[in-house]
Amino acid sequence: MQKNFLCLEDLANPAGAVTISRFVIAIAFPFLTYDPTLALAAYLFASATDVLDGAIARKWNHTSHTGAVLDGWVDKILHINGAWSMTLHGYMPAWWMWLWFIREIIMWAMVMTITGDFVSGRVLVQRPSIWGRLTAIFLFGAFTCTLLGLTGLAWPLTVLTGATGLVCGLSYLHRYLEDRKQFD
Question: Domain span at residue 125?
Answer without folding.
Answer: 94-184
